[in-house]
Amino acid sequence: MTIIFDGIALGMLLFLISVGLSVTLGLMNFVNLATGAFAMLGGYLGVLLVNEYGIPFLAALVIATAGCLAVGAVLERLLYRRLYAASHMDHVLFTVGLIFVSISLAAYFFGSSVQIIRLPAYLEGQIHVLGVDLGIYRLFLIVIAFAIAGSLQVVLTQTRFGAELRAAVDNPRTARGVGIEVDRIFTVTFAVGSALAGLGGALGTQMLGLDPVFAVKYVVYFLIVVIVGGPGSILGSFIASMAIGIFDVLGKYYVPELGAFVIYALMLIVLVARSRGLLPKFGGRS
Question: What's the CA gap between 34 and 216, in Å, rounded?
Answer without folding.
Answer: 8
